[in-house]
Write a sequence for this structure.
């Protein structure tokens, strides 16, 4: 089947696609490698001696960066795609291959179609990688990061605040994931018309006599207020509030590094805190950010179209400025969404739609 004067999946598509894949592999190594070097340089404390005189082994540090690499890639993936697209188009210009196609009556957009298809494939891969990597290695990566960052073998999660599905508020001073233990627990909630206030010095996630896991309390105390009447009693098990160790870790991650949350994690947090604009905005943003791969190609490739061989510097400068403008707008819109100045839907989709439309128009009007 011929599309735009070329056989769909034919020799030209395979040739341009092959150039793009090769350029993508090169850009991936360069950009992800640079991102890793910057991360190492900004976290030199990982190599410092701990207070007890010991230090993290090189094996632990290498293991952390091996686990962290997929997440670094997710942060820079649109730049990798853009660099690969620009490298590919520069090579086509260098050997006048694009000019030959234009002289044969094939449009530049049709010649570059494999690049746009590749960008969509990368976008889908980003979504799958974020979900898969978070589920498979996310907790291991977070535990190693805590060890290297805090210089301690035991992971301790401090100052956590979360809600359960019923809207009860849980405040935790310290959580020890290795023991599934909470130090200094407070719960504020409602049961019917009654206001509940629960405190405990410690809590362990243990097997309840009913067979369902629950929090076993040490020095647990319940105070229940209904109108002008108040009552209090000791509490052995936390049965009125539904949350587990995974919810504590996720709540801390959502508060500390919300940009690293996966789509499913955001969905989980938003279901427990439906009025949180940050979660709503990031939920939409995780749908639109992978599309930046395509949008950035649309707004950068036209700057190299029609450039004579050896005169691509101006085009590369223009493409770089276009990337800066796009991500500046993306950051501003996202911030406005998190602050509530714009709706989460509009703040996430507006940059993609506006710049995507502008890029498509620019591609059509580019001089060839």
């Amino acid at each position: 089947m011929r599309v735009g004067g070329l056989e769909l999946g034919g020799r030209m598509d395979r040739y341009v696609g092959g150039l793009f894949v090769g350029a993508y592999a090169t850009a991936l190594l360069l950009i992800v490698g640079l991102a890793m070097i910057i991360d190492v340089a900004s976290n030199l404390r990982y190599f410092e001696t701990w207070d007890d005189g010991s230090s993290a082994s090189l094996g632990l540090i290498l293991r952390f960066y091996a686990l962290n690499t997929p997440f670094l890639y997710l942060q820079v993936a649109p730049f990798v795609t853009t660099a690969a697209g620009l490298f590919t188009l520069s090579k086509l210009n260098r050997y006048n291959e694009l000019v030959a196609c234009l002289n044969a009556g094939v449009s530049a957009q049709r010649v570059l179609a494999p690049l746009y298809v590749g960008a969509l494939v990368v976008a889908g891969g980003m979504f799958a990688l974020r979900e898969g990597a978070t589920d498979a290695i996310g907790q291991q990566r977070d535990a190693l990061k805590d060890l290297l960052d805090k210089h301690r073998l035991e992971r301790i999660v401090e100052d956590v605040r979360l809600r359960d599905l019923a809207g009860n508020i849980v405040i935790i001073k310290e959580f020890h994931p290795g023991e599934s233990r909470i130090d200094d627990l407070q719960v504020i909630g409602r049961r019917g018309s009654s206001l509940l206030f629960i405190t405990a010095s410690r809590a362990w996630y243990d097997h309840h006599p009913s067979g369902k896991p629950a929090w076993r309390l040490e020095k647990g105390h319940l105070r229940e207020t209904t109108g002008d009447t108040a009552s209090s009693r000791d509490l052995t098990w936390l049965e009125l509030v539904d949350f587990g160790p995974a919810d504590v870790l996720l709540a801390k991650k959502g508060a500390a590094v919300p940009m690293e949350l996966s789509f499913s994690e955001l969905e989980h947090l938003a279901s427990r805190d439906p009025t949180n604009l940050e979660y709503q905005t990031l939920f939409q943003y995780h749908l639109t950010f992978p599309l930046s791969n395509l949008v950035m190609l649309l707004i950068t490739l036209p700057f190299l179209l029609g450039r004579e061989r050896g005169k691509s510097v101006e085009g590369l400068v223009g493409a770089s400025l276009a990337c800066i403008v796009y991500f500046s707008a993306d950051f501003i819109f996202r911030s406005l969404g998190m602050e509530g100045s714009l709706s989460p839907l509009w703040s996430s989709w507006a940059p993609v739609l506006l710049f995507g439309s502008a890029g498509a128009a620019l591609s059509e009007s580019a001089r060839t």
Remarks:
- The chain has three domains: 1-155, 157-247, 276-368.
- DSSP finds eleven helices and eight strands in the chain.
- The first strand starts at residue 2 and ends at 3.
